[in-house]
Each structure stands twice: as structure tokens, then as C-alpha cells.
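Dear colleagues,

For the upcoming journal club I promised to circulate an example of a predicted protein-ligand complex. I picked one with magnesium ion because it came up in last month's discussion. The inputs are reproduced below in full, followed by the predicted structure.
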Amino acid sequence: MLKLTLATLSFIVSTTLFVGAHDEFSKPDIKLETKLDAKGKNVYYMYIDGIKVHETNPAIQSQPVVVTPSSVVGKAPSDAIVLFDGSPESFANWTDTKGGTTKWKLIDGIMESVKKAGYIQTKQSFGSCQLHIEWASPKIAKGDGQKRGNSGLFLQGTYEIQILDCYENPTYPDGQAGALYGRKKPLVNSCRKPGEWQSYDVIFHRPIFGDKGKVIKRATFTVLHNGVLIQDHEELSGATHWRGPHAVHGYAAHPDKLPIKLQDHGNPVRFRNIWIRELED
Ligand code: MG
């Protein structure tokens, strides 16, 4: 427990009062509590933003849940839902968009998109989440711009993080690898060479809809591409569907949870090691 001297407390209180002269966001919310200990001495406790500071009693302040990280960097931690780990069982977590068997291929523990087979989607539905996915464009780069190693990761089956071979392959920035398609270009281009494995780590908070489909909260995305930050808590103003040459759709209310989708854009893009952790909204 924290025991503070009166001198320390008066310093904190006076500092708080001084900072409080500015605005409410420039200072923590501090509350003090005094109790007598067993020897009849005053003990001072402090609450900052509603948290009892340095409290070790789990009945008052619960401990964070223990999650065991993988012994291999990038692999699923103990509380993740594994969507694809190379096994036939995990490949069966994916269907075509009608819930039928997908024509995508499972080759040596790798999932590969097949031209004209259509998108695939998870059997399970998800809302806000942390998602890890690894992908590789074809080793031999064919085509230019959007025609080279194109696929896509769709959160809630609706919001696309572009997958594209953007190694020395210029295209419109809002459509390059890691773009929120048609809406937000990535901060930087951290693409690896064609054929090399690449990762996306995504923190996604779903949009929240109220009465009559009114948007109460927009979706936000944080994305790391090969460990490099490319979307920094970006807020999306609508869906990312392609229409004409643009992605101009606004939000349309949808269920709180929907499948994750991966795009067949006609190029054989490969996938491995996909896992997800559900988050609070
Ligand atoms: Mg795409």
C-alpha cells in the first residue's frame, strides 16, 4: 500500500490545483482518502482516474488475466482463436461466401486463393478484434498496379485492408498494401519482395449502430505491416466497397459480428498463421 507524507500530498494537491487552472484534459482526476492504521496513524490513499493506486487486493482491483504468449514470435497466444494454422482442420474453418466448401487450395500447410473461386470467409463471426495474418504474393511478379498479387482482408466482411504486391509496383496510394481501400493510404510502404512472407497485425474496433441504423461510433483501425505501423488508430467514415473507380459507400447498419473474409482477386496469393483475439468494443 502507498503511504504518503503530508508534504508529498500537499505537493500533489497544489500541483493538481495549478494544472486544473487549464482544462479538464490536462490533469488526472485525483481523489484522496485517509484511514487510520492499526497503530492509530493516518494512512493516505490515492485514486487516479478512479483507480486505487498501487492496490494489491484483487477484491478491490482485479489482476489482469494471464495470457501465455507463444514461444515463437508471431504465433497465437493462449487466448487466441486459431483461424488457420496449416492443418486441414483449421482450413475447414473457412467456407465460400455461401457457407459451402471453398475451391481455394490447401498446399503443404499453406492456403492459396484460386482464380474465380470467389472470396472465402470464416464460419465464425467477429466484431472488434486483434487479428494476425501472414500472406505472400506470387514469387514471380506478374502484372502491374492492382493486378499484381491482389487480395484483401475484410473485417466484418465489409472493411478491406488491401493486400497487394507493392514492392516496386506503384499504384494509387489509397489502394496499396495496407490501405483501408479507397479511404486511407498507409503511413509508409513496408512491403517485402514478391514471394516473401509478410504479416499484418490489426487492432479493429467495429462501428456501432444505434436506432434506425444511426452510426454512434465509427470503426477504427490500427495496422502494423511487417511490424511497421501503417495505420495509426484511423477512423473510417464508411465501407470500402468498390463502386465505379471509387469507394464511396457510407455505413450501412449490420450485425455486431460478421465473418472475416479474404478476397479472390484473380491472383494466387498465399496465406498462413491466422489468429484472432476478440476485444471489447
Ligand atoms: Mg484487394
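Two points we might discuss: The pocket of magnesium ion is lined by residues 150-152, 162-163, 263, 265 (CB under 6 Å). Residues 10-21 have pLDDT under 50 and may be disordered.

See you all on Thursday,
B. R.
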